[in-house]
Amino acid sequence: MNHSPAPGFGFILLLAMTVALGPLALDTYLPAFPAMADTLGVDSHILSLSISIYVFALSLGQLIGGPLSDRLGRGPVLLSGLAVFTLASLAIWQTDDFKLLLLLRALQAFGGGWAAVCVPALVRDRIRGREAAKLFSMIGLIVVAAPAFAPSLGSLLLELGGWPSIFLFLGVYGAALLVALRSTLFRGPRTPVTAPATSALRRYAAVLATRPALRFIGLQAMAFSVMMLFITHSSFIYQHHFGVGPKLFAILFGANIVVMTAMMLLNRIALNRFSPHRILRISITLQAAGIAALSLVLWLAPTLWLFVPAMMITVGAMGAISPNNQASCMEYFEENGGTAAALMGALQFSVAGGVSALSSMLPETVEAVVAGMAICSAVCLLLVWTPFRDSLPAEQPL
Length: 398
Prior knowledge:
The chain is mainly alpha-helical. Helices cover about 80% and strands about 0% of the residues. The chain contains 17 helices and no strands. It has helices spanning about 10-20, 20-25, 35-40, 45, 50-70, 75-95, 100-125, 130-160, 165-185, 200-210, 210-240, 245-270, 275-300, 305-315, 320-330, 335-360, 365-385. α8 packs antiparallel against α9. The protein is globular and about 55 Å long.
């Protein structure tokens, strides 16, 4: 199959901004919880239901949008998703009813899932192998900044125009992306549409039948679970166990994002010499080494300033794991790329969310959290180091 030339920076930026819809819509309104609870007449704890609904609807949107993008083409599905996201955001801007807000949050997430799931498939449609991994790294660099700055942006918007202004911003953001991507996606050659009569179930069956790719789908879910366990318990670990204040907690939390960004930059350089799969093995092993270091610190010298560097390595390794894993997985899907991306994205969120929920049943200790991370990491090591019985694609030499 002939592939288009590597996309330019402007198109890459638009793709990254599309993927960033999820964390932006999830994190920007967190500082506004007290104000929203007062306006809507509910408790802040009840308002957190809007987060759970959002994550579930985001996964559902990906599961439905992926096969549709294989059937109808990336452009129509991506733009439809952006339109739904935009309209739902603007409707939330105008609502003061809690039940309606929950419904609109589900629609917002559903549209965001449709849009985001098209991005890995768009990359796969255009380039492959090392170049695809480099592109995923560049997209990741921009996406990582979203959760880092989203709460600060939300606080600023809250001060300027109250909590509704946050959803007005999200609506304007979605509309701007819709306009920019519409002119970009339909300016060049269209993405080919494959087998219009093929049902979503058949497409998922075809993806699940591609056995070598399944380990990468599982790997994404388990590696993401390692990071999700840290995010879920980060406040307990740093503020309760180690006794740091809110300002220092923000700095320590942000340090992980700095390392993740550095790993993405190093990954782009390493891809000039090594295959995505080889770097993936190294980065998974690095994450496991970070968890081993965490265990040793807790056992021998449980001090904050030894614990933090080990955690930075553990979480920061995701900067190299995610782009190379996505590139390795998508190599197997000349067709049904959108369906494969949907399955990977939905499984990532659902498994990590389930692991995070189950972790609440663990003893409330840092040692228990690190043990949970170690179990997830052990599964990743097994998946990435077990010999392949099926051959890798030509551009994935070990």
